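WARN no homologs supplied; continuing
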Amino acid sequence: MLSQEEFAEAVRKALRHLSRPDALAGSVLTRSRLVVEHAESDPAEALRDLLEDAARHVARSG
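OK structure emitted
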């Protein structure tokens, strides 16, 4: 389990690498329950989709 600080850093790093599937594949976030539950076959793709969905939600709420 990640600390809050580790999680926040992992999210920032993943956001910087949204267009790099190879970098997202190495993210600790790909092993999170949320990503595993959304990943049909590719955890990096699931992570990217979840991050993009979250960003859209924040933008609309902004």
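The chain is about 70% helix and 0% strand.
OK
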